[in-house]
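[Discussion] Sanity-checking designs against the backbone

I'm trying to build intuition for which residues belong where. Below is a C-alpha cell string of 176 positions. I'd appreciate it if someone posts a full sequence so I can compare it with mine line by line.
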C-alpha cells in the first residue's frame, strides 16, 4: 500500500527527472535542508522541496535539526537518580506515597553551584548529567552532608535557653 510519504518521494523524483537536475545540484538541494538524501527528509521538507521545484513561492528551506537527546527515557532515569541522591540529603523532600516534592528553585541553585556546567538540571545534556552524578558520588564518599539533611546533625530549636556565666580570676574585689 502506498503511503503519503511514498507519494511525496515519487513526486519529488518525477520533478527532478522532468527538470533534468544533475547529481551535484540534487546534493546541494538536499544540503539546503540539512540532509544528504531525500529519504532523510521529513514529509514537510519533501512537500516544501516539491513546491519549490513546481515554481511556487514557499520561502527558505526548513532545516529540521535533530534533537540533542533522542532517548528521553535514559535522560529521565539519569535525572531521577540525581534527584534520589539529593533526596537522601534533604534537598528533595520525600513524601509517602510518591511523588516527591521537588523544590526546583533550591535544586537548581544547588546544581548550578556544584556542577561543572553551571546549568539547571533540566538543561543538562546526558553527558553533563553523568558528570554531575559523579560529582555527587564523590561528595558522598567524602562524607558530605547538606545542611538540613536527615543524616546531618540538626539544631534543636525547641530546646530551653541556657545561661552561661564566664568569669576570670581577678585581684580586684569590686569586679569579682
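Best answer:
Here's mine. Compare freely.
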Amino acid at each position: 500500500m502506498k503511503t503519503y510519504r511514498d507519494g511525496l518521494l515519487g513526486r519529488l523524483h518525477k520533478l527532478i527527472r522532468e527538470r533534468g537536475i544533475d547529481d551535484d545540484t540534487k546534493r546541494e538541494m538536499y544540503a539546503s535542508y540539512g540532509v544528504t538524501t531525500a529519504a532523510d527528509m521529513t514529509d514537510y521538507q519533501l512537500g516544501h522541496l516539491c513546491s519549490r521545484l513546481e515554481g511556487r513561492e514557499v520561502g527558505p528551506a526548513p532545516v529540521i535539526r535533530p534533537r540533542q537527546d533522542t532517548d528521553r527515557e535514559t535522560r529521565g532515569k539519569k535525572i531521577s537518580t540525581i534527584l534520589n541522591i539529593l533526596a537522601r540529603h534533604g534537598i528533595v523532600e520525600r513524601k509517602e506515597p510518591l511523588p516527591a516534592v521537588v523544590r526546583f528553585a533550591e535544586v537548581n541553585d544547588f546544581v548550578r553551584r556544584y556542577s561543572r556546567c553551571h546549568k539547571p538540571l533540566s538543561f543538562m545534556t546526558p553527558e553533563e548529567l553523568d558528570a554531575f552524578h559523579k560529582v555527587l558520588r564523590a561528595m558522598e564518599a567524602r562524607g558530605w552532608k547538606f545542611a538540613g539533611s536527615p543524616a546531618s546533625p540538626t539544631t534543636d530549636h525547641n530546646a530551653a535557653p541556657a545561661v552561661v556565666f564566664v568569669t576570670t580570676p581577678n585581684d580586684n574585689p569590686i569586679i569579682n
